[in-house]
Design a protein that fits this description.
The complex is a heterodimer of chains A (262) and B (281).
Chain A: E1 13-22, E2 25-35, E3 40-44, H1 51-58, E4 66-71, E5 74-75, E6 78-81, E7 84-87, H2 90-97, E8 100-103, H3 115-125, H4 131-144, H5 160-172, E9 178-182, H6 190-205, E10 210-213, H7 217-223, E11 226-231, E12 234-240, H8 241-246, H9 251-261
Parallel strand pairs in A: 3-10, 3-11, 8-9, 9-10
Antiparallel strand pairs in A: 1-2, 1-4, 4-5, 6-7, 11-12
Helix pairs in contact in A: 3-4, 3-5, 4-5, 5-6
Chain B: H1 2-5, H2 19-41, H3 46-52, H4 56-87, H5 92-107, H6 110-118, E1 126-129, E2 133-136, H7 137-140, H8 143-169, H9 172-180, H10 185-215, H11 227-238, H12 241-270
Helix pairs in contact in B: 3-12, 4-5, 4-8, 4-10, 4-11, 5-8, 6-8, 8-10, 9-10, 10-12, 11-12
The chains are: A alpha/beta (262), B mainly alpha (281).
Chain lengths: 262, 281
């Protein structure tokens, strides 16, 4: 737990006893998990299990009420001096978020900006890259997600699957060390899911560290190294994706997986 | 036989008769004719209206009206944006301060506020920073300054509510997306939230700007030489009361018409990126 003596092969993400409650409702009851650099971790579980909340805690869209999270060896949301934890201010939190990309269920592209403008917004405004260079990189990313022909249109003119691929490109433009996916295919028409999953599969292959909250058990089995099952604010089971999904040890996991497959 | 029943191409189409429209048109024209006749035979010397429409005093009044409306609105928008952002701040001191500002300046009638500012010297004979400088309030609080402060600050209270509604209309996901690319709160407001809120903010602010053009007429009571005050000054001398009020009315109509056209243009600009297929472009 001491951040001073982290070696280079230390986990990229460490969550230790992470707790969160909304009023009297406990949504995270002490989550412990480590994610290695280059690893893809899928989190599955019924709705209301706290999996999205946990994801949102990692980049401080939610404040945790107990425990701690480290990303890249840096304590999230606090600065430690001796035995004191100092809360970070707005600017410092924004700096920590830069290196953590996030892809949302509802895409959340900026509707008043074109596809290219969406992608270069962060690099230009936050990373202070030159607009021309950022634009070139944005176009390379659009090639990668197969949407270069849509570079100048507004998001409203794209299908859900296309919007989500732009959202992934927007997250990648920040050169993140970690990508978080919050049910990236749940809002998509079934025939559009495949395109988005393909882009994510390619990303996993390039060694991007990813934490994916998903209902796509097929994707979890094929692409992710490990899968975690969450239920009622607890991490019930975590392990190798194939073994978790084909021979879960816990009864709750078994029930969930068979219910999804029905 | 069934085949010929379903043939319609050889039939003659008789358009529907809109009797309601015809009756309404007759009634409206009749009413307008009565009004026009009344004004034509009434005690109005129309030649005076034409004569005074473009005299220098009226033109100066028109310019003063436009200048005051623009400046007071600028003050109102600046105050409105600042206080709306304060109101939604997590800082409880800023939030409550904004709430108090809106409460106070929205509650007191604009005319009363103008009189208060204009008569500020009765409360504070001099103003300034103690030990640094000090001036006589009467010298500073000219009709122009009093009108600008009175109208601008009360406008800010109304605009703050409009801006707040605009900020709240932007989806939470937009705030989160902006945060996840590492934007600070101010960057997020400036680059992501405000541009989207503008679509909601512009129509009512345009409406309030038009209201402001007319509200400047209140400044006539504190001797600010806007168009109504100028018209009054002339009719105090020549007693052509109605004629000069009509002159003022014509100019208000002209200014408001032009503003309405500009408002349409601005609204169109800020709705870019919004699907036109929903019919509310």
């Amino acid at each position: 737990m001491d951040i001073q003596n982290l070696s280079s092969d230390a986990p990229l993400v460490v969550a230790a006893d992470v707790r969160k409650h909304f009023g009297p409702l406990e949504v995270l009851k002490g989550i412990d998990v480590k994610v290695q650099k280059g690893e893809v971790l899928c989190i599955i579980g019924p709705s209301g299990s706290g999996k999205s909340t946990f994801l949102r805690c990692i980049n401080q869209l939610e404040r945790i009420d107990g425990g701690a999270i480290w990303v890249g060896g840096e304590l999230v949301g606090y600065r430690r001096e001796g035995n004191n934890l100092y809360e970070l201010d707005d600017v410092q939190i924004a700096r920590q978020r830069r290196s953590i990309g996030m892809v949302f269920q509802r895409f959340n592209l900026f509707p008043h900006l074109t596809v290219t403008e969406n992608i270069i917004e962060g690099p230009v405004q936050v990373l202070r890259e030159k607009p021309n260079e950022a634009r070139e990189r944005a176009h390379a990313l659009l090639e990668r997600v197969g949407l270069i022909d849509k570079k100048d249109v507004y998001p409203a003119h794209l299908s859900g699957g296309q919007q989500q691929r732009v959202a992934i490109a927007r997250a990648l433009a920040m050169r993140p060390q970690l990508l978080l996916f919050d049910e990236p295919t749940s809002a998509l028409d079934p025939e559009l899911v495949g395109d988005v999953l393909n882009v994510m599969r390619d990303l996993a292959r390039t060694g991007m560290t990813m934490i994916v909250v998903t209902h796509e058990l097929g994707f979890a089995r094929e692409v992710s190294h490990r899968t975690a099952f969450m239920d009622q604010g607890q991490l019930v089971e975590i392990g190798d994706s194939r073994s978790i999904l084909s021979s879960p040890q816990q009864a709750r996991t078994r029930e969930f997986i068979s219910a999804v497959h029905k | 036989m069934t085949d010929t029943v379903y043939q319609v191409s050889h039939l003659t189409l008789v358009p529907r008769r809109h009797y309601g429209r015809m009756i309404a048109a007759v009634l409206v024209i009749a009413v307008l004719a009565v009004i026009a006749h009344a004004f034509a035979v009434g005690q109005i010397e129309w030649s005076y209206v034409g004569e005074f429409l473009t005299v220098p005093v009226i033109m100066m009044g028109l310019v003063n009206t436009i200048v005051m409306a623009i400046l007071a609105m600028v003050v109102g928008i600046v105050f409105g944006v600042v206080f709306a952002i304060m109101r939604l701040s997590e800082n409880p001191v800023l939030s409550k301060t904004a709430l108090a500002y809106v409460w106070f300046f929205r509650a007191i009638p604009a005319l009363l506020q103008l009189l208060l500012w204009f008569n500020l010297a009765l409360v504070f004979p001099t103003i300034g920073i103690p030990g640094m400088f000090s001036v006589n309030t009467v010298d500073v609080m000219t009709p122009f300054v009093a009108a600008l402060l009175g109208l601008g600050i009360q406008q800010g209270a109304f605009t703050a509510e409009v801006v707040r509604a605009g900020l709240l209309s932007v989806d939470r996901g937009q705030y989160e997306a902006a945060q996840t690319i590492g934007m600070t709160r101010l960057q997020m407001l400036r680059r992501i939230v405000m541009p989207q809120a503008m679509r909601v903010i512009v129509p009512p602010v345009g409406n309030e700007f038009i209201g402001m053009v007319k509200l400047t007429s209140l400044a006539s009571v504190i001797q600010y030489a806007e168009i109504l005050h100028s018209a009054q000054n002339i009719y105090y001398a020549n007693s052509r009361v109605i004629e000069l009020l009509i002159v003022a009315a014509i100019w208000y109509l002209v200014v408001v018409t032009i503003l309405s056209l500009i408002q349409g243009r601005i609204e169109k600009y800020f709705s870019r990126g919004v699907m036109s297929s929903n019919g509310v472009k």
